[in-house]
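Hello again, I could really use a second opinion on something today. I owe you a coffee for this, so here goes:
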Amino acid sequence: MDFSLTEEQREWQHKARRFADEELKPLTLERDRIADPRQTFDWEIIKKGSRLGFRTLAVPKAYGGHGADLVTQTIVMAELARGDNAISKTFCQCWKWSQLITIICNQDQQDRFIRPFMADDTYLLGYAATEPNASSDNRMPPESDPKAGWKLKAERNGDDWLINGEKMLIANGSVAKLFFVNTRTNPNVSIREGTTLFLVPSDTPGFRVGKVFNKNGWRFYQNAELIFDNARVPHANVIGEVNGGHKARAADTSQFGDIELAGIALGICDAALEMGLQYARKTTREGRVLSAHQTVQLRLSEMQVLTEALRSFVLRTAWERELASQPGAKSKDYLNAQLVMIFAKSSVQRVTQLNLDLHRAIGAMDEAADKLARDAAIWTHLAGSTLLNIIAAKVLFNS
């Protein structure tokens, strides 16, 4: 089997690596230290990255984007995450939603939203699903319980819809200019039958950003509360059919979300391993550098093994999903796309903890090592990662 990268993939890898080393690493701790979660964001770094193509990487070439495949996207997000994983997430959050507009939205919606997205370096995207009482369970909702799932109400009003309620912890919530929004349009049936998906611009009347959440990790990344108070959205912004929101994304076969999070975890592992190796080689204890001590060697070797195992799993899964997304593909298997997230969670938390232990072993405290461990802690609950174990088990036992 040939695992070598194409020339184009290497070019993107080198570009992302330079950007991470020269632009992201110098500011990552500076932004992390800012107390106000609204102020951790830096528009200048977003503009710089956008001009290099990191915001529009996944948009098909027919729409003016770079049309990068899933393997290329995974390589870029991992390289960017080496510099700052929250900034990497801010960019690749736009990849899945911009690509989704070109896949599931009608021509009018594409014309109205892809063009401004391509033209504006500050045009970020978000997806509003999570609510105070409805979050990870929406990945595997109860089949018939109308009380389960999203409560954000959307009611028809002439040529418009009035949306009322709130979403919370929404990615890019305080900075995005356009959101995909899941709503409940029929509260008397399950969310599989009674939800509708809308495109909602941030300047929609009746829509506003509420609280920006003050997180322990991923501090650059903006997670916010979205408040809808008779937010008026035109019927033309309905994606697919009314009450067809749960199947609106059926044409999207990428399973990008879990691969995205696994790719970013890989970048964190790379950063932690690099940090641990440098520290062990330059720090002395009992007259010898740390890397000469067997216990340190065992820690570093475990970090290396987990990082390389995760790299192989992530890239293989991205390759499989890319093949499965092609027209006429025979396999539509999603199992690895879910399993890779499970392995990414355990790997990134173990590698960053080993790196942190290495720095603390002789009473040292390292701000950068601590930050990586705090960022990795997010994988405990990220995107329903625990629920993925249940989903994967069901698939395995039913196969």
